[in-house]
Specification:
5 helices; transmembrane helix; 78% helix
């Protein structure tokens, strides 16, 4: 596990740490608890978010890079709208706002697992070219 995780550790760990932070939010009460949980989620997002744009920029050929980043941003921004619908549906179907938090935590954990198993590191330091 450590070798595989080491190759794309910031993205996978970022998703999992962010998911844990979101998972912690409905489990406690008070501003101290929510501040702690939000800080955990924020640390996870800080590990993850900048790497997503950087990965797109690194993988795209220079003459196509701007278009690749635009396409990535389109799908990412579309996810905000679709995600909001998913959160509302989770809360409505579950009958409680807590279900929206569980939905996000599950989505982050699942995304991390998908990246862990099928993500491919392209940086030559971690994946040397023979």
């Amino acid at each position: 596990m450590s070798d595989r995780l080491g190759r794309h550790h910031l993205n996978v760990l970022g998703m999992w740490v962010c998911g844990v932070g979101v998972l912690l939010l409905p489990l406690g009460r008070g501003s101290a608890w929510w501040s702690f949980a939000a800080a955990v989620a924020g640390i996870g997002m800080a590990m993850l978010y900048p790497n997503l744009s950087a990965a797109v920029a690194d993988l795209a050929q220079p003459d196509w890079r701007a278009s690749a980043i635009g396409i990535y941003r389109f799908w990412r921004d579309l996810g905000y709208g679709v995600g909001a619908l998913g959160l509302g549906a989770a809360a409505a179907l579950g009958g409680s706002l807590e279900y929206a938090f569980w939905f996000v935590a599950l989505a982050m954990g699942t995304s991390g697992l998908i990246l862990y198993h099928w993500g491919e590191e392209t940086h030559t330091r971690f994946n040397p070219v023979p």
